[in-house]
Specification:
The protein has 332 residues and is mainly α. The chain is 77% helix and 0% strand. The protein has 15 helices and no strands. This is DUF2157 domain-containing protein. InterPro entries: DUF2157.
Length: 332
């Protein structure tokens, strides 16, 4: 491909033969980046190590002894945190310009093994008793501190997940976890408020330029939590006690989806456009079925709706770059 391009440029007399030879030599001998391959291997290594540690505990729980297992997990976790702390960069509210890949994955390993350690202590020694909220809150606080101190978006995702779990544990009755009974109407409302709150934190972070790059994580997780909570009300059965009327939930989903598309165009993000289109399509489809059900004789609209909506999705994908706009253009 490079030779064809250079030949075309030579034919147009845009570059000289010496320049073409120099470019060809550079293209053949330039270093090949293994950045993403190495990060993938590191992620896989951390995951396999955490999984292997769990399997080791499960298969040898009677032979190793509980003290040895606790000590082993604690040692691995402390080693991960210690290495990350030793390689730490000065704290800044901006994105760290010189991150250490090894320290990032060591911190991730430390956080994962901390979860394993606390879970094992609770299972074997009932360390926290029935105070499940404290069990979830403790690692969540540690993860938030580590995420901001070491500028780690992966740990931030774990912290936000822990926060959502803590809110759920604190709000839901004990039967939700002991009897798998999650039919609690106000859980959806709490999830909606939590999701909107997380999205608001992301917007504030970007506006105040305080860990601005964390805004994407907050908005991605927060918007999904809020929209999924609204979808539970949207798809609740006639005998379910939802936290809001389904039609109102559909309108809320459409509004939030439009906000995601607006944000995507402003930040040139394909992910938020696709999320907005997906959730918006679910809400519009629900409203279409409600209209057909309420007004007799409109069933034929469905035969046009699905083909036309399919065409709309195809057009969206074909024009996705135009909708989002290029990175060189100012967002809308």
């Amino acid at each position: 491909m490079t030779d064809k391009i250079l030949a075309s440029l030579r034919a147009l007399h845009l570059i000289s033969e010496e320049q073409a030879a120099g470019i060809a030599t550079y293209e053949r001998e330039k270093p090949f980046s293994l950045y993403y391959e190495l990060r993938t291997l590191l992620s896989l290594g951390v995951t396999l190590l955490s999984t292997g540690l769990g399997l080791l505990i499960y298969q040898n729980i009677d032979t190793l002894g509980h003290g040895v297992i606790v000590g082993l997990i604690a040692l691995v976790s402390a080693a991960g945190f210690g290495y990350a702390y030793r390689k730490r960069q000065p704290f800044t509210w901006q994105q760290n310009p010189n991150p250490s890949t090894g320290a990032d994955y060591a911190l991730l390993l430390g956080c994962l093994t901390l979860l394993t350690l606390l879970g094992y202590l609770q299972y074997q020694y009932n360390l926290f008793g029935t105070r499940y909220g404290l069990l979830v809150l403790l690692p969540t606080v540690v993860f938030f501190v580590c995420a901001y101190r070491f500028d780690h978006r992966g740990v931030l995702s774990m912290a936000i997940t822990g926060l959502a779990a803590w809110v759920g544990v604190s709000i839901a009755p004990l039967s939700a976890f002991t009897q798998n009974d999650f039919a609690v109407p106000h859980l959806g409302a709490v999830a909606l408020v939590l999701g909107l709150g997380l999205a608001a934190v992301g917007l504030v972070s970007e506006y105040q330029d305080r860990k601005k790059h964390f805004g994407y994580t907050y908005l991605l997780l927060g918007s999904n939590v809020a929209l999924l909570a609204a979808c539970t009300a949207l798809l609740s059965g006639p005998y379910d006690q939802g936290f809001m009327p389904p039609v109102l939930a559909a309108l809320l989903i459409i509004g939030l989806s439009a906000a995601l598309v607006w944000y995507a165009r402003r930040t040139h993000s394909y992910v938020f456009v696709l999320l907005g289109a997906l959730y918006g399509y679910v809400a519009v489809t629900y409203l279409m079925f409600q209209v057909v059900e309420l007004i007799p004789g409109l069933e034929g609209l469905l035969f046009f709706y699905f083909p036309l909506s399919t065409v709309g999705v195809v057009l969206l994908l074909l024009n996705l770059k135009k909708i989002v706009a290029s990175h060189d253009e100012k967002g809308l």
